[in-house]
């Protein structure tokens, strides 16, 4: 009487490992994309919050800059996104005038090399990016 032993053959095991490897690689790319979009959403929220802060500053002082010549930006209350933990974006005032400003969120750390590059927001609400499509980067 021939008894066949149960179990997996080496070929079956290799096929299963290959399938798991493919699934893990697809999931890792999707996860990284999700993390980058989440960090970009944090940066956009901080830029919008700082735009409101700049408008309150303007209402109080009659200008966006700290000096009448319009060359010195005020110290921002938030300088990174997310606000706590490791910075993925550094926030600065990249252009200042008595009647205008441009806020910039520059990727840093793990966010460097993200699709959109720097995010910008002006005193008139114009949204911009240093690379990529503005609509894709600001609306997703």
SSE layout and pairings?
Layout: H1 10-61, E1 80-81, E2 89-96, E3 101-107, E4 119-122, E5 127-129, H2 134-139
Antiparallel strand pairs: 1-2, 2-3, 3-4, 4-5
Describe this structure in words.
The chain is α+β, with helices and mostly antiparallel strands. The chain contains 2 helices and 5 strands; from the N terminus they run αβββββα. The chain has helices at 10-61, 134-139, and strands spanning 80-81, 89-96, 101-107, 119-122, 127-129. A 5-stranded antiparallel beta sheet has the order 1-2-3-4-5. The longest helix has 52 residues, at 10-61. The chain is rod-shaped.
Could you give a quick summary of the protein structure above?
With 140 residues, the protein is of the alpha+beta class.
Tell me, what's the shape? rod-shaped
Tell me the Rg in angstroms.
Answer: 24 Å
H-E order: HEEEEEH
Look at the structure and give the CATH class.
Alpha Beta
